[in-house]
Amino acid sequence: MLIRFSIIAGATLLWSGLMATGTPAFAQDAVFTLEGDVTLKSDYDFRGISRSDKNIALQGGVDLVHNSGLYLGVFASTIDDPFGHDVEFESHIGYGTSSGAYDLDFRLNWDSFHGNGDSSGYLEFQGSVSRDFGLAYITGGLSFTPDDREFGDGRSVYFFGEADMPLPLPNLPPVSVAFHLGHENFEGGFAKWDWSAAVFAEVVDFEVGLGYYDTNLNNFRGADARVIFSIRKYF
């Protein structure tokens, strides 16, 4: 699992070096963009369940994006899960494009967890379609995991819908409100709903967020209602 992450991370660094030199023949005809961010959160919520046991999480990610729509990236976060893992790594490759008024995105993720002398991970396929309706940018999508995503046994399917609405507030920094609703079903019989509503604002080159996150699960570790604060720096 770490080997897969290392391969993707190494490829990303190699591409970054090639982009910086500008000498390879293929780079003369291709345009690459390197995008990344560093985030500090009061809790790491993933689909309604805390992966940091309601503790502070430090996260970072970087993506190398080609002008064709292809992209390659990595993500890392501190975690504290029931299995004793304290670090999560995700490597992904994807493709984003537009068709008329719709934005399409397809990606393949490898998510792995490490710590306490143990490593585990899972593969996931994701797809989404989005459209800007003026008042809100609406996204709908699904994620499919062929085998065992942390809970239950066998495959799982996650459907979600999101709305991102900018708020035109005069004399104030850019502010937006984001809503999320998702449903996940596991082959082993475990299923859940999750939802959230959050406000994000640009403050001195940082994105500051405050949101409410909840699920329909009772007596499940890290799945109760929470308010999460975040601060993110893009580069």
Salient structural properties:
single chain, 235 residues, mainly beta, Porin, two-stranded antiparallel ribbon, 2 helices, 11% helix, globular, disordered N terminus
- Backbone structural class: mainly beta
Corresponding CATH architecture: Beta Barrel
- Give the total of domains: 1
Q: How many strands, which pairing sense, and closed or not: the largest β-sheet?
A: 12 strands, antiparallel, barrel
Assigned CATH superfamily: monomeric porin ompg
Q: Can you tell me the CATH class? A: Mainly Beta
Which word captures the global form? globular
Uncertain runs are 1-28
* Beta content: over 45%
Count of β-strands:
14
Spatial separation of the terminal alpha carbons: 28 Å
Number of helices: 2
Helix-strand sequence: HHEEEEEEEEEEEEEE
Helical content class:
10-25%
Which fold name fills CATH's third level, the topology? Answer: Porin
